[in-house]
């Protein structure tokens, strides 16, 4: 039977409870190590490829742009078939970007901003259409949330995302609970995908159990569908375009499944570029999480809140006493303020200088925290200024079902 | 957890492999008995209620109309909460009708016509809106059929259904592969339903296995959604209306599930009225099936084909020789020509006279077959005249997303 031919392959892609302490799947990310997840092990386990210096050099050559600091520093660290996308761009052939977010009731935090900041940069250097899926149906299925509330969360979060600075002429944003009811081609692709994946395979990939509700079991088809350009005929017409999906590594199971389904449907396999996680204030064992206000710096925090949170909670790699610190130096491997600098401080020379100074003991934890506060606060303030301008009307422009500025006819 | 509270109840409603020989589920209907399925046993097994003389009398009193012969003769034989619908009608309160069809590539046969003939009559006596779902997505999931072909089958079959004579002002027909992408409220209800049913429950009710594709596992939510008026805001506005679902008894598992979900969602439980099956020409062990041309009289058969099929294949309850037949008489319990008369001959007195004459041996099998041929042929010819007028344009009127002639604001 056609639907069983890929079982073996899909079953190898099992839910990732790492041999040791790391857990990475779409619902849980945690590590017992103070330095956080072992991302090299994760690459081996997931079967993806490391982004190495050679690939970064090729990226720069093909785009004619210096690599983004998130790429240079290994924060986007892993990929699948990124070369295919670079080949296309080099040949002047089109592709598109697809990313998404599972909306939450809380404000988004700075960790959520990272993949969108990077996606914005990708869109700029490649000049391609971007599609952003808000999985409000997922939230309604996984949590005790009403449909209406899940939709409202999607709209609020979409405004947060738009404020990162996406170009409305090149960006289409949608929420499943509304859009699936407005695009027959999307639902038709959902069914095509649902036909290629058995319950056994979904169980193997996502760890579903028999007491999970049936909506959860089909949900992967909904996150997969935007990876096929035929789901958006109003943008792509009848043209079949490949896609590059920037996402945090925990979403990889969805797209491993999608890549197998693509092969079955004789459609291009999506390429992927994976990010690590911004750690929680308390330390790299946990990613920053919206459900713990003290672990996160939110996009709507005031300067005072940011200052207090970093001073109070940001795990320090410094020594217990000033004397000891001067002698032994700080540990940038576990210091959260330093980690945040690697995400937000674009200037490589300055970062290197801070690292040297902190590790040598010249710079104290208090000084390092001050640098982090003074870096992050204006970034958030500028963000908040943009966010204040995102009215319902502005948002609706991104959600409108329409052609983008590209012509694929 | 909310989603487990109904497991026990739903698990009792297991797939129906009858203790003895009868099998009745949405995918298989068969019996080893020459007289066909034991419908009384089925009522006990499914936990539905028998339509008895008292209920028929009440039906006639409430509607002010003589009962349809399909109701009088026990062809619509079972129900769930039909009294609720009669109470509503008596109180002048609105409800609606919902039925459907899994489209097939072949022409529909006379067995398919039965529930639609009866539904048309229900619509006329109650004067209520009717919604007809074409489950082309189901066909695409269960069979090796392309999405486009499944949709085309839905449109062809919809024309066959329209030709039964439904009033376009009161009837909305849709196919899932198109409509779900045109009605956000419908998809939202699908998610609400999907949230109330676990894989275990779906397995218990429908007999799904772990190697079934994930689309099959969610499909029941799609057949359930039209049972909630909020799935069709363009017809019902914000009004919550109860529904009566006329269907063949094999579809009952979907609506047992729907009734449990309705209770969870605090929405009215659908009422049901169930039909038996028109037997195949070869005998009552099998229902008429589109996949066996010699077992079925199709709606596009010529008079010559009808005559030949009944003469050649219709299982006879007559005796082996004329002498024996004159002596012992024919058996109307197994005679297929006679069974067809019970479905299509409206005149009770004439039917009783034929029964008497055949059972006494006065009427021979050839004579009975001639009566059946002369009854069915003009019914199909008149049907074909109507069918010839159902153009794409006519069909599109039934499929248009619009208000019906009722006002629920």
Automatic annotation (TrEMBL), chains A, B:
GO CC annotations, alphabetized: cytoplasm
Biological process annotations from GO: tryptophanyl-tRNA aminoacylation
EC main group: ligase
Key words, A-Z: Aminoacyl-tRNA synthetase, ATP-binding, Cytoplasm, Ligase, Nucleotide-binding, Protein biosynthesis
Main location per the UniProt record: cytoplasm
Coiled coil start-end: none
Signal peptide residues on this chain, from the entry's feature table: none
Subcellular location: Cytoplasm
Molecular function terms from GO: ATP binding; tryptophan-tRNA ligase activity
Cytoplasm is among the record's keywords: yes
UniProt entry tagged with the keyword Transferase: no
Domain of life: Eukaryota
Family: Belongs to the class-I aminoacyl-tRNA synthetase family.
Name of this chain's protein: Tryptophan--tRNA ligase, cytoplasmic
């Amino acid at each position: 039977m056609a639907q069983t031919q890929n079982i073996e392959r899909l079953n190898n892609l099992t839910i990732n409870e790492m041999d040791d302490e790391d857990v990475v799947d779409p619902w849980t990310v945690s590590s017992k190590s103070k330095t956080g997840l072992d991302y090299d092990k994760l690459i081996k386990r997931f079967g993806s490829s490391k982004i190495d210096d050679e690939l970064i050099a090729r990226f720069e050559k093909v785009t004619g742009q210096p690599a983004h600091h998130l790429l240079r520093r290994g924060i986007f660290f892993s990929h699948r078939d990124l070369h295919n996308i670079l080949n296309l761009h080099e040949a002047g052939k089109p592709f598109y970007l697809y990313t998404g977010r599972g909306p939450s009731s809380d404000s988004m935090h700075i960790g959520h901003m990272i993949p969108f900041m990077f996606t914005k940069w990708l869109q700029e250097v490649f000049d391609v259409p971007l599609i952003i899926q808000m999985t409000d149906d997922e939230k309604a299925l996984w949590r005790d949330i009403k449909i209406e509330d899940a939709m409202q969360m999607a709209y609020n979060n979409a405004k947060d995302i738009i404020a990162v600075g996406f170009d409305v002429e090149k960006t289409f944003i949608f929420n499943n609970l509304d859009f699936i009811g407005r695009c027959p081609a999307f639902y038709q692709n959902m069914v095509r995908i649902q036909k290629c994946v058995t319950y056994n395979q979904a169980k193997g990939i996502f760890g579903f159990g028999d007491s999970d509700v049936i909506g959860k079991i089909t949900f992967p088809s909904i996150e997969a569908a935007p990876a096929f350009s035929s789901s958006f005929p109003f943008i792509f017409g009848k043209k079949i375009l490949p896609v590059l999906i920037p996402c945090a590594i925990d979403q990889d199971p969805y797209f491993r499944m999608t890549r197998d389904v693509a092969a079955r449907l004789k459609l291009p396999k999506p390429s992927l570029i994976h990010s690590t996680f911004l750690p929680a204030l308390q330390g790299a064992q946990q990613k920053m999480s919206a459900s713990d206000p003290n672990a996160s710096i939110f996009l709507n925090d005031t300067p005072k809140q940011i200052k207090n949170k970093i001073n109070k909670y940001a795990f320090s790699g410094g020594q217990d006493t000033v004397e000891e610190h001067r002698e032994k130096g700080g540990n940038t491997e576990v210091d959260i303020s330093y980690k945040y600098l690697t995400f937000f401080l674009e200037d490589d020379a300055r970062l290197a200088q801070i690292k040297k100074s902190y590790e040598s003991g010249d710079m104290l934890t208090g000084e390092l925290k001050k640098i982090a506060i003074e870096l992050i606060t204006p970034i958030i303030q500028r963000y908040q200024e943009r966010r204040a301008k995102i009215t319902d009307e502005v948002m609706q422009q991104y959600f409108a079902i329409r052609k983008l500025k590209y012509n694929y006819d």
